[in-house]
Amino acid sequence: MKDFKPEIKESSEWLSKIGADPTGGMTRLLYTPEWIDAQLALKKAFDTAGLTTSRDAVGNLFGRLTGSKYPDKVILTGSHIDTVVNGGNLDGQFGIEASFMAIKYLKETYGAPLRTLEVVSLAEEEGSRFPYVFWGSKNIVGSAKAEDVRDICDADCVNFVDAMHAAGFHFRPESEPVRSDIAAFVELHIEQGKVLETEGKNIGVVTSIVGQRRYDIRLKGEANHAGTTPMSYRKDTVYAFSRICYESIEKARAEGDPLVLTFGKVEPKPNTVNVVPGFTHFTIDCRHTDKATLVRFTKEIEADIQRIAGEMGITAEIDLWMDEDPIPMDKQLVACLSHLCEANKANYRLMHSGAGHDSQIFAPRVPTVMIFVPSINGISHNPAEKTNQADLDEGVRMLAHTLYQLAYTEQGGNI
Ligand code: HGY
Ligand code: MN
Ligand code: MN
Hints:
- It is an enzyme of class 3 (hydrolase).
- GO terms for molecular function: allantoate deiminase activity.
- It comes from Erwinia sorbitola.
- By secondary structure, this protein is α+β, with helices and mostly antiparallel strands.
- The protein has two domains: 5-210 and 326-414, Aminopeptidase, CATH 3.40.630.10; 211-324, 2-Layer Sandwich (Alpha-Beta Plaits).
- It contains twelve helices and 16 strands.
- The protein has helices at residues 9-17, 33-48, 93-110, 135-141, 146-149, 160-166, 195-199, 237-255, 291-311, 331-343, 359-362, 389-408; strands at 52-55, 61-65, 70-80, 115-122, 182-190, 203-209, 211-220, 224-225, 260-262, 266-269, 275-276, 279-288, 315-324, 327-328, 348-353, 368-373.
- The strands form three sheets. Strands 1, 2, 3, 4, 5, 6, 14, 15 and 16 form a nine-stranded mixed sheet that branches. Strands 7, 9, 10, 12 and 13 form a five-stranded antiparallel sheet that branches. Strands 8-11 form a two-stranded antiparallel ribbon.
- It is globular.
């Protein structure tokens, strides 16, 4: 494939306006008006570029460039359109834009591929509105279960199914077969960490994605008067949370890399200056590249929570709502991508992903690989999320080479 220098920046502006949060960054949550607008705007862009667009039952958006020789072999590429609250405009969005740009370039330069190329804007990955993750990719591979979302609600007590129906989408009909035409999935994504920047690399070839366990924990103590309740009489759930948090973080630091542990959400109730907090809801996000270590460590934390709560006369309700295994990427695709980096003089390294991605849902079912570009200062899930223009372009360039190899060459079918 001839080399090319894409200009990704012009597309980030228009898509970033849809879901720009006046309090900073991007907030584009599943099935919200801005989510609907972003999917519609992408559909229009895909249509204008001459791709055949479609949306599945739950709202995944596809742009298709049908293959001339093996139309039923689909090389799928893309990422998720949803964001965290006050997040950046590259996490997920960049992967969709880059896939669209690469396919557009290949179509205009080489015409129809041998195998079909599809860009997908996945409905949801983050789990930032509802306590459920990978809704988009899990519906494509058939691992999403209606019972897992039927009774869950967002922070405003909006039910998941009601939100889905209000946005014009519905459960995938049981009668609808799961797709079996996806021959490979390639996801370009920002690294969201500092490894590439620290080592002066422009491309990451991802070899595996960490396993993750996420929890909701609810501590029930006793609300009481801040002035008349002696310290020894209290069932203070913020105090209990602080002991749990301190002891667990110290344990995680002692465990060492690559284990990470985050208490991202802490909501005391009634959250009032002169009331001993009788209830505290908090979350746990724990990750590791090794499943056994992840399970062992989180089981220890669960036991510590019950011990501390018990010592303080407080009850602890522990809800593990995400339990994803660490997943290796496809060895042949990793080798293919590494070879393309060598052949095209890309400054790359092999690495694992500390962030979760839709690729970990596709990988057990179809050959999957991820390409990373550096994040400035390793910042992500933050309005300051940024990547140098040259690195954005290099990511699109290497994605295009990968898609060309898989979709336009006979040997691309050996994957
Ligand atoms: O949280 C993550 O790892 C990803 O950004 N959803
Ligand atoms: Mn994210
Ligand atoms: Mn992401």
